[in-house]
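Incident log, structure service

09:12 report received: a user says their structure output differs between two submissions of the same chain.
09:20 pulled the input from the user's history:
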Amino acid sequence: MPYATHDGVRIHYEIEGDGLPGIAPVVCYHGFTGSLDEMYDFGYVEALSADRRLILIDARGHGASDAPHAPEAHHVEALAGDVLAVMDAEGLARPHFFGYSMGGRVGFGLARVAPERLLSLVIGGITPFAADPAKIDRRVATWRKGLAAIEPAMARGYGAAWTPAMRERFLANDLEAMVAFLAGLKTFDCEDVLPAMIMPCLLYAGENDTVFYDDMRCCASRVPGARWISLPDLSHLEVYVRSDLIVPHLRAFWGEVEGSL
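09:34 re-ran on a clean worker, output below:
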């Protein structure tokens, strides 16, 4: 079980696929409360690993990575640094980065702290804009009620994709680490990085994502040359599950990036 260490925090990751000549590796980063297992569950690994090397990362506080309980340990620059530590451990100079939801936040963080390390950036279901602190406080209060109280909402959001294994992993999360991450969102604001995101970028969201869709479409319009994909009739979590819809866009985008080198 490989690990990289950044600022004393051990970050678990896995490698899938050997990659073919001329096909760049991809760093994959999951959403909040999840783990790298979701990339297997939702079919991304099976669909992409035949010709690409995939580096799947457990975010700090998630999966088999260490789980710090201090909100300041979860600021976006720290999470971006975790990715760079994994990249350095694996000798990755400039991979593609693919992150959904929380993983997309980390993508914006990477665009700020190390844009030269990104061959391209794919971000789904998130924006770089600062959140209302009062909303964060309300969300923290909700999560303080415990994982068992949150689980029914997760099950409704994922629908049939919410398997017993996913439920078990969710309930095994470190609640204090989850709360620390949410509290740490008060420091998140990457809006200033948008005009400087000159690496090839693909951004996407579901049209039924009532939290992020409008802001993400606005965000895409402010990133130079960004490709924007709107997915009809899908909510935030439904988009994440539908690798059958997302992977063709990923393959086409990455192929174009590599073809232009």
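09:41 both user submissions now match this output. Likely a transient worker issue. Closing.
09:42 reviewer note: The chain has one domain: 3-130+187-259. The chain is about 40% helix and 15% strand.
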